[in-house]
Amino acid sequence: MLRSDLAKKADLTFYQLLGLGLGFLFILFFLAFKISSLMLLLAGLFWQRLAATCDCLNHLSLANHPLILTFLIFVVLVLAGLLFLIIAKIIKLKILTNKFIGANLANKSRALAPILNSLAKETSLENKIIEIQDAQPIIFCFGLIKPKICLSSGSVDKLSRSELKVVLLHEQHHLLSHEPLKLFIVRALTKILFFLPGLKYLANQYLVFSELAADEWATDYFQNKAFLAGALYKVLKWKKQLIKKNELAISFFADQVMEERVNKLTNNNYQPRFKIFNSHLAGGLVSLSLIFIFVLGLLVLSNSALASSAQSSCSLSSQNLTSQCQISVKKTICQLESYGFHNSVCTD
Asked: What distance in Å separates the CA atoms of residue 319 and residue 68, rounded to the nearest whole number?
């Protein structure tokens, strides 16, 4: 599929979002790997058991290193909480999306209406369209791996043939672009990394250009806008109260960035704002860098402090370690003298 300028901008924004998300996840798992050894040490501290060699004992207590160990506990809890949040958010998003799809597909028609059959062949969408029995104006593209288009019987009845065709072409663009999968990633990232500056802005920019690219595809580069405008008008007027479903990984025909789409349909010269690198994205990158540097720096200081403490603790005893071990061995040998063993070391 030939990618238009709008589609390329949507792709670029998506990859920026994906880069921020993967960057954060890399930092998260990198820190988890780095702190794993300290977590084992922490477990040993709670049991008050560390290495002992020839009476050289090294006990690092919470009282001796309150700041370091408190930091380690905090980092462990934060990492565990973030991992749990990531898993929980992804599972919830998938469950809600599947629930909505399942509820609609339960009313699936056995066969497509004749007009849909004809349009499916005309738009090369055979076996990609599902019709459901519902009077509501339901039109969406779904499916993470093998996307399909769902239309309600009410939509088929209310829209003219030309309007239905432009609606199918709009959803075809989402289908070919694997929009449901991209939306799943965008929704998941915005839910998980809600605290990261710039992420919400990039997500909205992606939605704008994704929808405009689909409109462009459906209207032959906005040359034939009348039928798309008519379809949008009928669907929005029919619904009266627009139901927001921005929480799902589903591309709905008339539920998002409507202001931008209407502006483009009514004004050929309208150009939505697009920035490759802006202050929002810069804020997100700076935040990631600061988090990484700060936490990694504290981990390095913690490792150094604990290592130097352990070394100094043992070094104090290691000055007499050889003599202590010799005394221990001598006592053991001398105890054997009572059993008839004699050795010169006991006469020293």
From this structure: 28
How many C-beta neighbours within 10 Å does residue 201 have?
17
Which amino acid is residue 24, in one-letter code? F
Per DSSP, the three-state class of 300 is: helix
pLDDT in tens, 15-61: 988 988 888 888 778 777 777 766 666 666 555 444 443 343 444 44
Q: List CB contacts of 289: < 8 A, sequence separation 6 or more.
A: none
Is the residue at 336 inside a domain? no
Residue with tokens 């991209």: 182
Number of domains in the chain: 1
The mean pLDDT of 331-342, rounded to a whole number, is 48
Question: Which residue is it, tokens 């070394």?
Answer: 311
Tokens of 63: 């009282």
Indicate the angle between helix axes 66-105 and 179-192, nearest 10 degrees.
150
Strand, helix or coil for residue 282 = helix
Helical residues (DSSP H) of 177-225, grouped into ranges: 179-192, 199-218
Do residues 223 and 34 lie in contact, with contact meaning Cβ atoms separated by under 8 Å?
Answer: no
Residue type at 119 in one-letter notation: L
Q: How far apart are CA 38 and CA 52, in angstroms?
A: 19
CA 187 to chain centre: 8
Query: Whole-angstrom Cα distance, residue 111 to residue 345?
Result: 101
Helix (H, G, I), strand (E, B) or coil at 57: strand
Please indicate, yes or no, if residue 338 is contained in any of the structural domains.
no
Give me the domain span that covers residue 62: 5-298
Residue (of 229, 258, 245, 96) closest to 159 by Cα position: 229
In a domain, 139, yes or no: yes
The answer to whether position 319 is within a domain reads no
% pLDDT > 70, the chain: 70
The string of DSSP codes covering 252-272 is ETTSS-HHHHHHHHH-TT---
pLDDT at 55: 40
Instruction: Provide the 8-state DSSP code for 108.
Output: B
Residue with tokens 């609609």: 104
Report the C-alpha gap between 253 and 273 in whole angstroms: 22
